[in-house]
Design brief:
globular; HIT family, subunit A; 6 helices; 22% strand; homodimer; three-stranded mixed sheet; alpha+beta
Chain lengths: 350, 350
């Protein structure tokens, strides 16, 4: 295709979908995902004393010889924010600042140092997502916090510094710029059309089909129309809901396999790429839950993005999302379809 | 210092200035800036036929044995945008798109393959900036274009794919998100206070002094209060002006040395880091030139930023800008101060 300028319908951000630049020499540089972490690994069973004391732990039921825990959540040893104290909001001439109050926790996803989300048992991924939900709900009891970010960095180029698989939770006394922009764009759309923009997007994407990656009873994974990055994937719940904290047990059982499925497709398609995923949810107490739709954004870190993108907020994406989605869909024949996972074209439940 | 949450006064973006995380193991990974470009180098004299035909060329005055040119501007061989055609703006359900119309040009900064902006003769840097101004002015005669981005990627981690020093110009039929956010924030400030936010910021920063990096008669280089990245530097003209295209000959003669000075400090402080710089200017025909202040943003690419920053628009910066600025100022004793360059504390001209 020739290149197109596409506008993200939520944030208003424009992106160049530059099909032809895919012909450039070496557009995706090779990245090693492996990390040399500290020895011994503080996230491995037996080394629990090397981390701060856990704030949440799931233990396996009974069986002798089982590991002592399945998922552990601990405060980050090098936290970007401190949990104690008042915010002390103040000005300094024309600048605004406050103390770096917040929570920064690490979800140790598995006792197995070598395990990977693409190989976790389905139950393991459900426990991880449940731990996210539990910690988010707990942290939001603290009235100082205006938002909670849940994210995973996999591989050094994606910002990870430990090899043992983990994700992170940051609770903040402010709402990040991207979430603010989403709330703003979604409010404008809702004011004009009286509907949730992501509900409309889901309906259009399911009818269109070109950007669909996978779907199951409760979730749809798609390549966003104005993808900033090659092979960016968005996972949306079919049912409108602003807050991730409201996720049901059944939805955790269907979110886990579609997230694993997307990560498997990316691993197969892109040779175990570094990646990030980020959970987007409405801020606590958000007054217009009809306007926001929680979601999971998965971004493989493939290209050293031209740094002007940092300065301009303008992205050049060499891979049209339709091509990325087709490629990811076509991998189905090489994959074991997880239990409860519907192939494209099958009717959703309910 | 303990960590702080700081708000960018223009865009409203919050950032964690996390002083203590500077203690983490290996916060700045080592990056090689070197690139293995194609052989032979299409940007070297004698290989002009390997690039598209130049749109601008500066030739040295007379002297036998001089190179055939000093600065050459050519269309990008792999353009992200095409110059020919109409925009064909249209909708696709709830999405908006247009054809990828625009200009994408490369400024070959020097005939010398091994030369670097920190070692260019002062005259060379002036010619480069003058070429930016000339090309910007020419491109904005095209009524389809709403903005022009001038930027430089140096080193592979900053997105460069050629070793021979060059910068780039992209003309776009839209205004990028970051510039929109700046215009919006600056308009709010101007509505409330009746003054340009950057003029106020300059006055406050000069009086405060902690974040100053360098200054001369016409420009001030400083570490922004809410820096997203370690050693981020902003160069602001002292005199209010919205459009870079209005830069005077005298200002080009003083911008060139302060930009070289900043790049020399970063090279000394950070061992030849990869970096980007981006020129920010008001969109053509912008109706409120009293609100915007053109500027150059310089960002060394030191850290693999945690990818959740892509998703959240929320940054963690391990280096307080006051520390970065002090470190960059202190390098003065190791440097030859360029001609016309004033040390901190000397009175500006005029």
């Amino acid at each position: 295709m020739s290149s197109e300028l596409r506008k993200d319908p939520v944030t208003g951000r424009w992106v160049i979908i530059a099909g032809e630049r895919g012909q450039r020499p070496n557009p995706f540089r090779h990245y090693a995902s492996t990390i040399e972490g500290p020895e011994p690994c503080p996230f491995c069973p037996g080394n629990e004393s090397l981390t701060p004391h856990e704030v949440l732990v799931y233990r396996p039921e009974g069986a002798a010889g089982a590991p002592a825990w399945t998922v552990r959540v601990v405060p980050n040893l090098y936290p970007a924010l401190r949990i104690e104290g008042s915010l002390d909001k103040r000005g300094e001439g024309l600048y605004d600042l406050m103390r770096g109050i917040g929570a920064h926790e690490v979800i140790i996803e598995t006792p197995d140092h070598a395990a990977d989300p693409t190989t976790y048992a389905p139950r393991q991924m459900q426990e991880i997502l449940n731990a996210c939900r539990e910690r988010m709900t707990d942290l939001l009891r603290d009235a100082r916090f205006r938002s909670v970010l849940v994210f995973k960095n996999h591989g050094a180029p994606a910002g990870a510094t430990m090899a043992h698989h983990h994700s992170q939770i940051i609770a903040l006394p402010i709402v990040p710029a991207r979430i603010e922009a989403e709330l703003h764009g979604a409010a404008e759309y809702h004011d004009y059309r009286g509907r949730c923009i992501w509900c409309d997007m889901l309906a259009q994407e399911i009818a269109d089909g070109r950007r669909l990656v996978a779907q199951n009873a409760d979730f749809v994974a798609l390549a966003p129309f104005a993808s900033r990055f090659p092979f960016e994937v968005l996972i949306l719940p079919r049912q409108h809901e602003a807050f991730f904290g409201s996720i049901t047990r059944q939805q955790i059982e269907t979110l886990a396999p579609i997230l694993q499925d997307v990560l498997r497709r990316l691993k197969l398609a892109l040779k175990d790429p570094p990646y990030n995923y980020v959970l987007h949810t409405a801020p606590p107490g958000f007054g217009h839950p009809e306007q926001y739709h929680w979601q999971v954004e998965v971004i493989p870190k493939l290209t050293e993005l031209a740094g002007f993108e940092w300065g301009s907020g303008f992205y050049i994406n060499p891979t049209p999302p339709e091509e990325a989605a087709r490629h990811l869909r076509d991998l189905e024949r090489f994959m074991d379809v997880p239990e409860g996972h519907l192939l494209k074209g099958e009717a959703p439940r309910g």
